[in-house]
Write a structure and sequence with these properties.
α2 packs across α4. Helix content is 65%, strand content 14%. It has ten helices and eight strands. It has two domains: 184 residues, Outer membrane efflux proteins (OEP) (Up-down Bundle), CATH 1.20.1600.10; 139 residues, Outer membrane efflux proteins (OEP), CATH 1.20.1600. The two termini are 47 Å apart.
């Protein structure tokens, strides 16, 4: 069993291939995730797209320039008639022409007033860009938190593997004592079988750790964007436990730093702008423009092509749309109220979340001290049990129970440490401290 366990531990410590590996700290993993994670890249592209939308909205301030051209050819001339001028012409003169032709026009229209639609559209595009930036920041926080969870879960498995190695060393010593006792006729074979069951239990636990570590290694690799067999994590962590009260931030003050709260505020702002745009769509629009027209329509008669320029002004009044305007505007006002209720509900839930995470951080911090004490008690209990067993005043079953309690206490201590650091990061995020 000893050699099998060492093989398992060697597998846990080695990569899936024999290529050179880099040892990565937690901060290095976070940096890689921020640069390589596919969701981070997607968020960056979404921000760039929002920036382009804002640029596109800005172009609406400038004249709308268009050009058009046409060509036609008919089966018979457009003009085919006899010109009669009694008293001037002795007989009708046949007139025929314009069987084909072309025309072109260039026109520029400058919007003067559009009911505020252009201004509000630009403001709305600006809000969209700000929302995209906030979403990118929130996405980065989520990626960092997920990366940290994968990292610390690997640390947990590493520490549990070390505990199993320690238990295996203890069992080797116990096995020798029981085997000698059995050879001397001082114990039953059931004691040896119980040890074998315990060894199989450790072996089964190590197998689960191996499989769990492989999956977590793959997940972390996908998170940071590098092959799983190109790195290993740094398991040498210096644990520093800061009391939660030293990190406490009043939730009512912290909530303004939350990205989620800023997004809720932006949603209210966007809905208000949408209402202004809806109102503007029912207001008159005014524009001024210039056009240049060129054609050869009369070339058959004058042997000249024609061109002309003109200035014009347009006014558009959507009279028939006013009927439904009041209903559409009321619908937008209802959406503003809904956005306000959503903001209020979101704010209340964020406050609850902050308190919840703080309580969980406090609980994890308290459990570290409790579980550390439990480890010390379990170690002393196992030491005494081992002495009593060697003296023949304690059964093997009680000794194995003491070992099981030691394993549980060590695992609980490791889990409380990892839980504390995970909750510490989460608390800093939900209070806007990072």
């Amino acid at each position: 069993m000893r050699y099998r366990l060492l093989i398992y531990l060697a597998i846990l410590a080695l990569p899936t291939s024999l290529v050179a590996q880099e040892t990565l700290t937690l901060e290095q993993c976070k940096d890689l995730a921020a640069k390589n994670n596919l969701k981070a890249k997607q968020a960056q592209i979404e921000y760039m797209a929002a920036h382009e939308v804002k640029k596109e909205a800005f172009t609406k301030y400038f004249p709308n320039i268009s050009a058009s051209g046409s060509y036609f050819r008919t089966s018979t001339p457009l003009i085919d008639m006899d010109l009669e001028m009694p008293g001037l012409l002795p007989a009708p003169i046949p007139v025929s022409g314009i069987k084909d032709g072309y025309a072109g026009m260039v026109m520029a229209v400058q919007p003067v007033y559009a009911g505020g639609q252009i201004v509000n559209a630009n403001k709305l595009a600006g809000v969209g860009m700000e929302v995209s930036a906030l979403q990118q920041q929130k996405n980065g926080n989520d990626i960092a938190l997920q990366t940290e969870q994968y990292f610390y879960n690997l640390i947990t498995l590493h520490e549990k593997a070390k505990t199993l190695e320690m238990l295996d060393k203890q069992l080797i010593s116990i096995t020798l004592d029981v085997q000698n006792a059995y050879n001397a006729g001082l114990c039953n074979k059931t004691d040896l079988l119980n040890i074998q069951l315990k060894q199989n239990e450790i072996r089964n636990g190590m197998t689960k750790i191996l499989h769990g570590q492989n999956i977590l290694q793959l997940l972390l690799a996908q998170q940071i964007g590098i092959p799983a067999d190109n790195f290993r994590i740094d398991t040498m962590i210096v644990y520093q436990h800061v009391a939660p009260e030293n990190l406490f931030l009043d939730p009512k003050n912290a909530i303004d730093n939350r990205i989620e709260m800023k997004l809720l505020n932006k949603n209210v702002e966007a809905v208000a702008l949408q209402k202004k745009m809806k109102v503007g769509s029912y207001l008159p629009t005014v524009g001024i423009g210039a056009a240049w027209i060129y054609d050869n329509m009369m070339e058959d008669f004058t042997n000249e092509k024609q061109s002309l320029g003109m200035l014009f002004a347009t006014v558009k009044v959507p009279i028939s749309d006013w009927w439904g305007a009041s209903h559409a505007i009321r619908a937008q006002e209802a959406k503003i109220k809904i956005a306000g209720y959503q903001r209020q509900d979101g704010e209340e839930m964020l406050l609850i979340q902050i308190w919840k995470v703080y309580n969980e951080l406090t609980e994890a911090y308290d459990q570290i001290a409790i579980n550390k004490e439990s480890v010390a008690v379990a170690e002393e209990n196992f030491r005494l049990s081992n002495d009593y067993f060697s003296a023949g005043t304690l059964t093997l079953s009680d000794l194995l129970d003491a070992q099981t309690q030691l394993q549980k206490s060590r695992n609980s201590y490791t889990e409380s440490l990892i839980s504390y650091y995970a909750k510490l990061t989460e608390y800093k995020q939900v209070t806007g401290q990072e």
